[in-house]
Amino acid sequence: MSTPSLLCYLQIFLIIIFTYQTKAVYDEINNYHYFCDQSNNKANFTTNSTYHKNLNTLLTTLTSNTDINYGFYNFSFGENNNRVYSIGLCRGDLLPNDCRRCLSGSRTNLTSICPNQREAIFWSEDERCMLRYSDRLILGVMEDVPMFYSNNLNDSVDVNLSNEVVTSLLDNLTSRAVKGDSRTKYAAGSLPGPRYEVIYGLVQCTPDLSENDCNSCLVENLQQIPGCCKGKIGGRVVRPSCNMRFETSYLFYEPRASPPPPPPSPPPNTTGKSNKSTTIGIAVAVPVAIVALVFIFLCIYFKKRKSKKKFEEVKEEEYQDDKIEIFEPLQFNFNTISNATNDFFVSNKLGEGGFGVVYKGRLSSGQEIAAKRLSRDSGQGDSEFKNEVLLVAKLQHRNLVRLLGFCLEGRERVLVYEFVHNKSLDSFIFDQAKRAQLYWEIRYKIILGIARGILYLHEDSRLRIIHRDLKASNILLDEEMNPKIADFGMARLFGEDQTQENTNKIVGTYGYMAPEYAMHGQFSVKSDVFSFGILILEIVSGIKNSGIRDGENIEYLSSFAWRNWKEGVATNIIDPTLNNDSRNEIMRCIHIGLLCVQENVASRPTMASVVVMLNSHSITLPIPLEPAFHMDVRNFQDIKSWGHSSIQESVNETSITELYPR
Questions:
Q1: Which pLDDT score is estimated for 382?
Q2: Cα angle for residues 98, 102, 107 (degrees, 5° grid)
Q3: How many Cβ atoms sit within 10 Å of the Cβ of residue 546?
Q4: How far are the Cα atoms of 402, 465, 476, 488, 550 from residue 394, in angstroms, in the given order?
Q5: 188 with 202: CB under 8 angstroms?
Q6: What separation in angstroms does the CA of 651 have from each of 8, 511, 514, 636?
Q7: Any idea which residues carry the catalytic annotation?
Q8: Residue 21 pLDDT exceeds 50
Q9: Which CATH number fits domain 148-248: 3.30.1480.10, 3.30.2290.10, 3.30.360.10, 3.30.430.20?
Q10: Is residue 149 scored above 70 in pLDDT?
Q11: What is the average per-residue pLDDT within 558-585?
């Protein structure tokens, strides 16, 4: 017996064993598929128990969430044995409202079919969406079982050709889907099939999977196709972590996600008269096609040149041209901003940063704004202004402050932002009275929101952005205390595959700078991770990173946290106003903060790993190594002696974009 056959039988055997051991209820009703885990080692929950209440709260939050518009939901709620984890996944072509309706219906069906199981899965009709929950960690875990498959009973008109096209199509779609990001891993498309038919295909993974796990899951599905659907005009293989489907001459997904090519034209007639017409047609068509191809290539060439030029303009530290190529709707008239701020009246002043003053304003439409007017005599401000407009205008995330537009008239340079009603994080966390308002649930929400915002900058946005000036004063808080990362005047754009860059111009705020950047000008995504680690320790402790005085000695926060953690008294780090709230979660955040500030760049986690660590309490964290030494502003002369030509710090530790009322 061949090795592939042995693997196939082994896989079927494992699925049978799994089903027997879990004593699962798995069935199909009305084109829905569901799975209720009734294994002996998972006690069912009782009605109105803590687990039941947590489950209802979690599923209500998931199905009513309007902030997510990419079809993937992952949440957890509760503590210890009563913690519930959930995942909601919609097919990649569903619009947000359709997705939420599907998940809401799945919630109703699932809680009815599996009324008291601690783990259950529901697939809606045509796998438009999947909803699952469990009392164990399921985020980032590839699940092979339970699996189901089905096929269209009709046979293809050309079995061999059909099988070949199906395999090629699904294999190609798999290669595309695994390259997706943490929001979506989905691909759909088509290929010409037998007798001028079109074969449509779709593959999808839950986007929390790594590229390797997604690929493994889809490859396993593809290996099931010959056994379930060979020679059929349609079929599907579905697992919790991925699904795969094909249909012949039936477009089962919305083409907006992956528009299918038009069906191929039938071959020409071979009669003599047609041959003559064909010859004439070819004689006319070939020159036209050549001209069209030349025209297309020229368009592509000039478009690439324009894109490359624009990329270089963003990437350069020193700009050679004062022009900003930005969409016209983003540009404000200076008189409009002047009227909105009452001619920049002093009572509307919100704050002052290194390169300008921020004013509160109200447009004629009633919308509140924060307008940052750059200083006219600031040569640095021109560069930061261009950088911020070009970068922030392209970024859209709930944890990033939103740029509404800009003004460029004469020597006037103004950035117009959404108005954020609460002050910045530092005005709360370092204020003795206001700090008490930040109970742990709010602090944890702030930590997680900042992490998600940085992850978006590093991996999920169309551009890879290194912020380079993450600190408490650059984190703004909205009315619901949701964090928004601000001030992109010092940010840098990385290429898609770029991991590190060197600079002779050190910018940012000392104390938050990673040592490899402060000393050698080397920065990467791990530089932002270091700054985020300092932020975690400040949020947990309520202590500034500028130094803790003990008599004549000064100990900085990272070393203070490390020493207490190493000595087993990490509770000394915790802000006393937090009392005994969620002590385990607080200690875990201290642990994650210490992992982020390690001196070895490679040892620091990525922001993707940090988000997973924060979302899951069952993942074992590695032991942190000693953090990097603290870089103090009093070491300026030492840094200059290392040969850096320019050192730029946010003046007086204030941010360039501080959009908050005093």
A1: 59
A2: 150
A3: 15
A4: 10, 11, 19, 12, 46
A5: yes
A6: 65, 14, 19, 14
A7: 469
A8: no
A9: 3.30.430.20
A10: yes
A11: 89
Reduce the DSSP state of residue 369 to 3 states and report it: strand
pLDDT of residue 166: 94
- Residue 18 pLDDT > 80, yes or no? no
Share of the chain above pLDDT 70, in %: 71
Cα angle 407, 412, 418; round to 5: 40
Structure tokens at 410: 């004469």
Give the span between the Cα atoms of 71 and 90, in whole angstroms: 5
Contact 193, 165 (CB under 8 A): yes
Asked which of 283-287, 352-356, 611-615 is least confident by mean pLDDT, the reply is 283-287
The radius of gyration computed from the CA coordinates of the chain, to the nearest angstrom, equals 29
C-beta atoms surrounding 136 within 10 Å: 12
The residues near 54 (Cβ < 8 Å, ≥ 6 apart) are: 77, 78, 82, 83, 84
Q: Determine the distance from the C-alpha atom of residue 272 to the mean position of all C-alpha atoms in its chain, rounded to a whole number.
A: 61
* The domain over range 3-134 is classified in CATH as 3.30.430.20: yes
Residue 472 backbone dihedrals phi, psi, to 5 degrees = -60, -35
Going from N- to C-terminal start, the domains of the chain cover 3-134, 148-248, 328-418, 425-653
Shared fold status for 3-134 and 148-248: yes
What is the percentage of the chain residues whose pLDDT exceeds 90? 38
- Mean pLDDT on 387-409: 81
Q: Annotated binding residues for ATP, as ranges?
A: 372
Quote the pLDDT of residue 239: 95
Q: What is the residue type of 634?
A: R
Annotated binding site: 372
Domain boundaries 328-418, corresponding CATH code = 3.30.200.20
Task: Say which amino acid occupies 575.
Answer: D
* Contacts for 226 with CB less than 8 Å, ≥ 6 apart: 163
Res. 297 pLDDT band, cuts 50 70 90:
low
Distance CA 220, CA 600 (A): 38
Q: What mean pLDDT comes out for the span 150-171?
A: 89
The arrangement of secondary structure in 425-653, i.e. its CATH architecture, is: Orthogonal Bundle (1.10)
Cβ-proximal residues to 641 (8 Å cutoff; 6+ apart), any chain: none
pLDDT grade for 550, boundaries at 50, 70 and 90: low
Q: Mean pLDDT throughout 27-32?
A: 53
Distance of alpha carbon 590 from alpha carbon 538, whole angstroms:
10
Q: Rounded CA gap, 132 and 336, in Å?
A: 51
* 466 has pLDDT over 70: yes
- Edge-to-edge strand ranges of the sheet holding 368-374: 349-352, 356-362, 368-374, 412-418, 403-409
Where do we find the tokens 């709707």?
Answer: 329
If 0-12 CB within 10 Å is exposed, 13-18 middle and 19+ buried, where does residue 562 land? Answer: buried
